[in-house]
Structure formats: C-alpha cells, structure tokens
Amino acid sequence: MIGYRTIGQEELVTEDGNITAQALPLDKETSKLVYETATFGIG
Amino acid sequence: MGDHTEAISIDYDPKLISYEELLGYFWNAHRCVRNNSSRQYMNAVFYQNDDQQKAAIASLTDQAKHLAIAPSEIKTVILPVAQFTYAENYHQKYYLTQHSDIRDFLSGAYPDAKSLADSTVATRLNAYLGSGMNTNWNTFLKELPSYGLPENLEKRLEKAAQKKC
Questions:
Q1: Of A26, A35, A41, which has the smallest distance from its Cβ to B5's Cβ?
Q2: Is the Cβ of B123 closer than 8 Å to some Cβ of chain A?
Q3: What is the pLDDT of residues A9-43, one digit of tens each?
Q4: What interface predicted TM-score (ipTM) does this complex get?
Q5: Which structural domain, as residue segments, surrounds residue A30?
Q6: How far apart are the first and last CA of chain B?
Q7: What is the pLDDT of residue B81?
Q8: Distance separating alpha carbons of residues B74 and B72, to the nearest angstrom
Q9: Contact list, A24 vs chain B (CB under 8 Å)
Q10: pLDDT surpasses 60 at A3
C-alpha cells in the first residue's frame, strides 16, 4: 500500500498497479491477469 | 477535493475487450457537447500512454462525425492521467450498498477501499445487481459458484437469478 493519506477516518490509497483483492478464489485468479487500465471522468 | 477530478478507473483484460471498445461505451454514456465548469466533475478521457492518447483522439473524431458536428464542438477533454487516488470505501460498488448481507461479507473480506474496488467478485456482483436483474442471468448462474460466497448468500442469489431466467 503506497501513497496514502487520510480524509475523515479513512486512509485514501493511491493506485500502485497491483491488485490487492486476494481473499476470494476468483479474485486470486484474476489478480494474476496482465490487465490494462482505462480512466474516464464522467461529470 | 482540491484540484482532483472524480473518475472511474477500469482494469480490463485486453484479450476480452479493447480500449477502443471501452471508449465507445464512454462516448455513449455522457453528453460530450457540454462540460462542467468545475474541475471536480468533468467529462474526460485520461490516457495512460501514447497509444491510448491516439485512440482517444481518433474516437473523439469519430464521435464528432457520428454527431455531424465539428470536433471542436466536443467539450469532453483528453488529458494525461495523473495520480489516481481511490475514493473512500463507502463510495465503492454503489449497488451493493442496497444488499447489506452481500456488502457486509465483501467488506469483511476487503475492508479497505482499494481491495474492494479491485475485487472482480465485487465488481461483477455490483454490475449484475445494478442492472436491476435485467442482464444475462444464465451466465451469472454459471459464474456464481466460482465467487466463493457463503452458502446462504449463494442460495439467495441463485433463487433471485432463477426467477429471472
């Protein structure tokens, strides 16, 4: 976990290119994928 | 939040869907001929590299042609992505907030915003339930056992899906 800061009670985390969700079997599998990222703002 | 813009970040498998296809969904999901004056809420493509920049510009040109307007009339902006910060946990997977049993289970498995946002299981459940159960429920039923949900949740979702099939 990198680059976090706190707003209110919660630490805000910065994207680091890794998938941290590993607790469930499907997530463990998909976290191994070589994925790409698309980012959009929708006002 | 300062000079931040609210945005969605989609991690996708390029073997299953292309960036160009995602751009197509993006153009269909907003009105591109106007934009907000506030930086917090604006229509934008945030590109990660030269290839995405080229694809975004090409898609803007295509959208202008589609709308029979000049590209300059499109107010959606194309910008390089800066640092992406995850919103707080309660902002993630909105439709799951209407299913407290599922939300509680997933929040237990993924207590922080990043892991909840990154979870394929949470993302798929959010999409299926957010569709108002008007999506491909046969596919959902095939996928459901792979999610690793507790038996009671799996059964409840299975029943809900079977009613829709």
A1: A41
A2: no
A3: 667 888 888 888 889 999 999 999 999 999 999 88
A4: 0.88
A5: 1-43
A6: 44
A7: 94
A8: 5
A9: 109, 119, 121, 147-148
A10: no
